[in-house]
Specification:
heterodimer, A: mainly alpha, 2 helices, B: mainly alpha, two-stranded antiparallel sheet, 2% strand
């Protein structure tokens, strides 16, 4: 363990701004990418459902 | 042998394979991220020269590695697409590009926030930084090119060509710190030797492994959506929707007057 307290950890030896801007932006972007992929999956399935309906109608 | 290999070159069978693999890669990514963050942010000591600003390394270096490596994998799929003309190749290139762009951006961003306390500038037109910015533009260029071509198969070919031309940039990034006199430091980790303390190196390698596993998991998840999107007119996707429970089985689809399901009831 390198830190004596949690506030010591947050302060990052005076480099808090640079360290947390790096880690924060990375976390935000990764979460955003996962959300985007989940949304993409829902949309692709929804479009495929429509196509399936059209095939059902046209074959009946 | 070749028959076995090309089985998974069909989007329909690759869709299933990717679905089975994703949880394993995602779990590996999550565990390695937790372990890597613990090693890097809690266990590892403060650097005697750079203080705690050096902790940006645990994101910066893995992101830069994966940003470059993903491009090489993209180029591999692009080449396979040109040689074998398989549909899956173009889909994989398409699935990898956003994550490659993401990690390249993270490398540039974290580099800026590391450069400021270390060099006194967020950005300099150094060979390493400039060639990495070009890598980011190559990813963006690939995605813009795809978006501008309506026919996906033509977009595959044009995108593959662009990807293969751009691959020349990767050795330029990697060797830039040797070929030119750069402000960016030289490689701390080379095959067979390292100038870093063991605990710091371990944290960095674990984070690199996490980023690698994440990239595989997220690209496989993305390629599944791309496969469904691009094969939505085919019968197998229709069957898949039923098999995965996204629609009711034939006869229970209901709600659509005059459909086969309605008549059967």
């Amino acid at each position: 363990m390198n830190w004596s307290s949690f506030s010591d950890f947050l302060a990052m030896g005076g480099y808090a701004f640079f360290v947390w801007m790096s880690y924060g932006a990375t976390a935000l972007l990764v979460v955003a990418e996962i959300a985007w992929v989940v949304k993409q999956r829902r949309q692709s399935l929804a479009r495929a459902r429509v196509q399936r309906k059209i095939r059902e109608w046209s074959s009946s | 042998m070749s028959i076995h290999w090309f089985k998974y070159a069909s989007p329909a069978s690759f869709y299933g394979l990717a679905g089975r693999l994703i949880p394993w890669f995602a779990a590996a990514a999550a565990l390695a991220t937790l372990a890597g963050l613990y090693i890097g942010l809690v266990l590892a000591p403060t650097d005697f020269q750079q203080g705690d600003s050096y902790r940006i390394i645990y994101i910066h270096v893995p992101a830069a590695w994966i940003g470059m490596f993903t491009y090489l994998v993209m180029a591999g799929w692009a080449a396979a697409g040109i040689v074998f003309n398989t549909r899956l190749s173009g889909m994989m290139v398409q699935a990898l590009a956003p994550t490659g762009a993401l990690f390249t951006f993270i490398a540039l961003w974290t580099g800026a926030f590391w450069g400021r306390p270390t060099w006194g500038a967020y950005w300099v037109w150094d060979a390493r930084l400039t060639s990495t910015l070009i890598l980011f533009f190559l990813y963006i260029g690939y995605m813009a090119l795809r978006a501008s071509i309506d026919d996906p198969r033509r977009a595959d070919r044009a995108g593959a060509l662009l990807t293969l031309v751009g691959v020349v940039n990767i050795p330029i990034i990697y060797f830039s710190v040797k070929w030119w006199n750069t402000l960016h430091q030289g490689a701390s980790v080379k095959p067979g030797s390292s100038s870093m303390a063991t605990v710091m190196l371990t944290g960095m390698l674990v984070m690199a492994f996490a980023a690698w596993m994440y990239t595989i998991a997220i690209s496989l998840a993305r390629v599944r959506s791309i496969i469904v999107e691009r094969e939505q007119h085919s019968a197998w996707v229709g069957e898949l929707l039923v098999a995965e429970g996204h629609v009711g089985a034939p006869g229970t689809s209901g709600g659509v007057p005059g459909s086969k399901g309605e008549k059967a009831r």
